[in-house]
Amino acid sequence: MGSKVEKSAANKAIGLDIGTTTISAVVIEGRSGTVLESRTVSNNSFLPNRQEWEKAQDANLIIEKVKRVLEELLEKHDDISVIGLTGQMHGIVYTGSHGEPVSPLFTWQDRRGILPCFDGKSICSLLEERNGIKAFTGYGLVTHLYHCLNGSVPESAESFCTIGDAVGMALTGRTKPLMHSSNAASLGLFDTEANCFLSSVLREYGAEENMLPDVTPDYTYIGTYRGTPVCSAIGDNQASFLGTVRDAEDTILVNMGTGGQISVFSRALCKAPGIEARPIFRDAYLLVGSSLCGGRAYAVVKEFFQKFAQAAGLPELDVYAVMAHLLETEKKPPDSLQVSTLFDGTRADPALRGSIGNISVENFTPANLIDGVLSGMAEELYQYYSSIQKETGLERSRLLASGNGLRKNVFLQQKMSERFGMPLTVSEQIEEAACGAALAGLAAVGAKTVDELVGSK
Fold first, then answer.
1. Strand pairing of 35-42 and 22-29?
2. Which CATH architecture is the domain 12-232+431-453 placed in?
3. Per residue in 114-130, is it b (16+ CB within 10 Å) or e — as a string?
4. Which of 116, 173, 187, 338 is disulfide-compatible with 357, CB 3.0–4.6 A?
């Protein structure tokens, strides 16, 4: 399939971001990338858990919600050149012979990958012990192997894909997923360099090769919806990068939301410990380090003080405001608390936990605890950047922040700037992922080049 539009035309594009908790949409002006309109609705599609380790959403309900938002925007704007898609990565939904969902969306939060399922061992353990592959629970092919070994793959399933791909199929009538590499790699068991799934490993665990989705490294036109071209879905990390960064080869993007993340653009693969090389487009990658606790670390401290306030008879106390006051007014001692914020472990070792060290009579105060947690949040992401530098020699001079965990916390902004040793700029773009999806859509129909998307000369 292919469709091209004139680069000189004043095209508009719609970008849709199917997140875990919200579904966001933007209309952008094609040449400038200016957001003309944005909308956000609640996803609210989680299914009741039959088991505490299950995290599944109603895929058909998500598709209905997306279509409603899309219809409203298409009714209002009659000059849309393309619809771009992104959404939560890693999770999968099984699809039938007509491309329709035949299962729930098993999300990235699903934990069946660490359940004993074969000879007392989990899928994640088996892959590491037998195949030397570090794969994580919630990754789609880990979930799929669990279903294969337990005989729970839906009988009518023909293939599987991310929710973004499932939405693309529902919009265009495709019967088999065509996944962009950014989403395909997020399922795990994927050879990024060869741009293909590890079929031989999958066969060991009874996974049928003919169920694997097709994969493309390019932003690709997959069909039309009401006459408007639709682009293959891309990963939300890659979409957020495209929607935020304008000088990719000199920028570090730090994101702090529920989790934390550092992303560095590279034309070469990197195999540093803890770093994922995620495809962004053909022969280009995002080198990504993720902190699982991320912005929740600050919320954990807030909840700690909130419980004390409630016990003291102050349930309405604005704890965040008090924390900010302490940071502003209390002088920091020369001997600081050393806080590790690995409260949720790491992807490689979920059993790791955080710690508070270097405690003395003088420095063990509420303000220093808050300050130490902020330093720990910045340190965790900086260590990922240090690993990337050591492995690749890449140097960056710009630090760009996105996500509400950074956008709304000036104290964390200061910590990031200090630790990275460079000025920090906060992105003004709010719906980063939806904007990035729209830009990828413009590349799919020929209105932009991929180099233009990342500011390459």
1. antiparallel
2. 2-Layer Sandwich (3.30)
3. beebeeeebbbbbbeee
4. 338
Per-residue pLDDT, 11: 83
CA–CA distance, 148 with 142 (Å, rounded to integer): 10
Residue 453's Cα: distance from chain center in Å?
A: 19
Q: Is 241 within 8 Å of 248 (Cβ atoms)?
A: yes
454 three-class SS: coil
Residues 6+ apart with CB under 8 A from 28: 12, 13, 15, 34, 35, 36, 435, 438, 439
d(CA 15, CA 19): 13
Residue 335: predicted pLDDT:
87
- 3-state SS, residue 403: coil
Residue type, 190: F
Q: What topology is assigned to 247-426 in CATH?
A: Nucleotidyltransferase; domain 5 (3.30.420)
Q: What is the DSSP string of 12-50?
A: EEEEEEE-SSEEEEEEEETTT--EEEEEEEE---BPPPS
- The 10s digit of each residue's pLDDT in 111-170 is 999 999 888 899 999 999 999 998 889 999 999 999 999 999 999 999 999 999 999 999
Q: Which two tokens stand for residue 306?
A: 């909130």
